[in-house]
Structures are given as C-alpha cells and as structure tokens.
Amino acid sequence: xxxxxxxxxxxxxxxxxxxxxxxxxxxxxxxxxxxxxxxxxxxxxxxxxxxxxxxxxxxxxxxxxxxxxxxxxxxxxxxxxxxxxxxxxxxxxxxxxxxxxxxxxxxxxxxxxxxxxxxxxxxxxxxxxxxxxxxxxxxxxxxxxxxxxxxxxxxxxxxxxxxxxxxxxxxxxxxxxxxxxxxxxxxxxxxxxxxxxxxxxxxxxxxxxxxxxxxxxxxxxxxxxxxxxxxxxxxxxxxxxxx
Length: 243
Fold this sequence. Notes:
Largest sheet: 6 strands, mixed
Strand content: 15-25%
CATH architecture of the largest domain: 2-Layer Sandwich
Radius of gyration: 23 Å
Mean pLDDT: 84
CATH superfamily of the largest domain: Ribonuclease H-like superfamily/Ribonuclease H
Low-confidence stretches: 177-191
Structural class: alpha/beta
Number of helices: 10
Shape: elongated
C-alpha cells in the first residue's frame, strides 16, 4: 500500500487497574485514524462497563468512575466493530504491551478468541522514542514538550484525547508533514511545465529579496536554541554553520 493510502490507527485505553492478569478490565478505548498521515475524522471511541470496581489510584489518573460506567456497553457488545476497525491497519500505541495486553485479555473472553496481532501491525512509539532519545524521559508529556505540542488541556488521562495528542507526537517524530507542496494543481500559469516541473520564464522580473530584521533574527536564534536543546546539542545545521 502506498504512503498516500496507508491506514494508521492511533490507539489508547483506560483501565480499572494495571494488571489484566488480576482481572482488571478496559473501561475506555479511544482511536483516531490517519490516512496518508492525515487525520480522517473516522474515530472510534467508547466507554465500557467493566463489571468490577475501578481502583482508586486509577480513578485519580483518568477520573472515570464506577457510577459513570453503570449504563455503558460491555466489551463483547462492541468487540466485532472494534476488531473490524483495527483490521489491516498499522496501530500506533505508546507503551504498546500495556494496551495490547488488556485488549488481548478482553478478546480472550470472547468465543472467537481473537488476538490483536492477528488483526493489525503494531508500532510502539515508546520504543521509537527510546531509540531516538536514549537516556531521556519519553513519556507522552515529555514528548509533547520536546516536540512543542500543546497538551495544556490534558489535566486527566483520557483515551481519545491521548490518542489525538499521540497522533501529533507520532507525526512530529516521523518527519511531520508528509510532503512539501510547492504549488496547487490550480496554479499552473506563468511558466512552462514539463514532466511535472514548472519552469519560470527567463525574462521574468527579478525576485524581491527581503532580509530578516533584528527581531526576526533573534526569534530565529531562539528557535534554534530550543531545537538544539531538544537534540542534546546535536543539531546538524548549527554545528555546520559554526564550522
């Protein structure tokens, strides 16, 4: 599948506790879909009745209460729709073993005995971050700070909110915008186009050169300082400029 049509799902869950082996359950699933590295708006979000009490420590993290979940569907009620949503996609998760462990524990309770790995490819952004930023903090909040992504509205963990934030983080970690578009298809006049390359007329007026003022230069240097700090002093363009 081409990058333009590649389907990726950014996923997060909230749970009653930390260990599915101790009977803890999923209480929220939040997913956002990327097609060709762009948000499609085709999200999957559901709260679930876990049929057990939520640990107090977990409530402090996500703020979801037993009372709120009393009338919500159970996992088996949404399992088929959820499996179809994941099927064939690359699923992007921060600390994937945690979420996949819970999802597989839920799937194991079904007659079909599904497994996440049989439905989709899994990418763990925590492992990616540890390879890219060894020895540094690589929590979702730390990555937001490193990549200058606004998460001020994240006062509590929430599966859908965290998926939206992780999508921004993932795109920043893997190169940001997929492709630089220099010209829209509608803007084709003013030169000759051969093989998709637009050639400007040789007798065109000279290009106007506008030099940066002192404030713009200072802002640029400040930005370079921030990037250099995030890279641990390894920013290539700054070392090249200093050599």
